[in-house]
Design a protein that fits this description.
By secondary structure, this protein is mainly α. The protein is built from five helices and no strands. The chain binds heme C.
Length: 95
């Protein structure tokens, strides 16, 4: 019984690790098309990542993520809460 539990726990933690790496901010930012409107240093349709980082602190990420999710003053973002937060943190911290 015990070895089975350990194997299950190991499999579960692998699954979690996989999900976490799939949710990295920079990858999501690319795959969700944010780069269409946001470039690293140049203003496109939206502000550059540099401007977003200059204007916002990481602790504002939750608030901004909520606004992006609702689509208030911004094209609505279709992603999970965790994904949106990872992308917003990336725009602010570059990570
Ligand atoms: C169709 C163009 C467009 C796309 C696509 C887009 N944005 Fe934006 N974004 C804007 C514009 C315009 C603004 C400036 C208005 C505003 O702050 O809401 C902005 C602002 C922002 C801000 C700053 C908000 C603030 O309060 O300072 C963040 C963060 C952001 N976008 C993240 C994202 C992310 C993450 C994605 C991808 C899921 C994305 N954007 C996709 C146009 C876009």
């Amino acid at each position: 019984m015990k070895p089975i539990l350990i194997a299950l726990a190991a499999a579960a933690s692998l699954a979690v690790a996989g999900a976490a790496s799939a949710q990295s901010g920079p990858d999501l930012f690319k795959s969700k098309g944010c780069g269409t409107c946001h470039a690293p240093d140049a203003k496109k349709m939206g502000p550059s990542l540099k401007d977003i980082a200059a204007k916002n602190k990481p602790d504002a990420a939750d608030k901004i993520a909520a606004a992006l999710k609702e689509g208030k003053g911004h094209p609505k973002v279709a992603a999970s809460d965790a994904e949106i937060k990872a992308m917003v943190l990336y725009t602010i911290t570059g990570k």
